[in-house]
UniProtKB/TrEMBL annotation:
It comes from Oharaeibacter diazotrophicus. The keyword Signal applies. This is Glucose/arabinose dehydrogenase. It comes from the Bacteria. Residues 51-381 form the Glucose/Sorbosone dehydrogenase domain.
Amino acid sequence: MRLATFAALALGLVATVAPAAADPAPAAPAAAPAAASANFTVEEVTAGLVYPWGMAFLPDGSMLVTEKPGRLRRLAMNGTLGAPIAGVPAVVFENQGGLLDVALHPNFARNRLVYFTYARQTPTGAATSLARAKLSADLTRLTGWTVLFTQGPRFDGAGHFGSRIAFDGKGHVFVSLGDRQQYPSDPAAQRLNNGLGKVIRLGENGGIPADNPFAGQPGRNRAIWTYGHRNPQGLAFNPLTGTLFELEHGPMGGDELNVIRKGRNYGWPVVSWGLNYDGSPVGTGKHSQPGMVDSIRHWTPVIAPGGLSFYTGDAFPAWKGDILIGSLQAPGIVRLDMAGDKVLSEERLLTDRGQRIRMVRGGPDGYVYAATDEDPGRILRLKPAP
């Protein structure tokens, strides 16, 4: 392993905003740099992956890692990378599509069920799907692969698949789904008859809960929990409060962190803190509108968020309860200092490495693990400095 020592860089920035022409708003000033919240070392656990995307820790402390081309690997914490696990079906590996998130069922130790999101080929194009399978006791193969949900309508295109998986511990699984770049020709994320630009809620077996907000309404997708999302690649419950947080890519500016509430509309593409890539206003040109939920934090310039997780370990006491975000456009990790569900401040980590971080998670050992969006892709481990 290569080992480098870093003092974590705390920029303490308040996100600035590029105002849309029809609704001007002043930019928030940047705060002065703060002292580093923790000193840590960075170890390279492995460099043998191809565009790693999702990570899930097994009970023995090893890690399942998805690779976008369609492979699932087991990584031991000593750096040993296993052969691809058998039983993963074909995925569409193109542009933003591929094998994406992976998550263990809350009772994995008993039922050995693993959940995945991936781009699945259909007769009318690739579609984000949620599937589950059983991992063998020897950790070498998947059996009983079952598709639980497929995003629709289906169409050609290779962008904005989303997606992340989160369990609420109450028998439900939540999945974030991208808008598949239908805007501006079709504001599909605002329509309730499809799975585009949505967060959905299913039973753990793929059934539709009767108390979903639109379950009893004809002509509406009964799986929808919230709508009006662009390309959400972060989804996690705050383990201290039970609140669901979602993180999504904006267009040119306007990445968003949202608190997810049942049945609510999060605005895309009617309102946005960003602009279209040609510089024109998005939708109404406004940042917010009555009846639409505003983000609790937004970034312009964008960070291009990967995944998010809540840190619950003991190795970094100053980070406990905080949000860790993989950052692609501003390469590194974004740490949000949290007080319950409130964001207090922001710190940027690993900024001097220039590596796009797709996902970051705290491990059972209390250390922080980050997957780099590269080929060869790396898993990095952050440990307190001696």
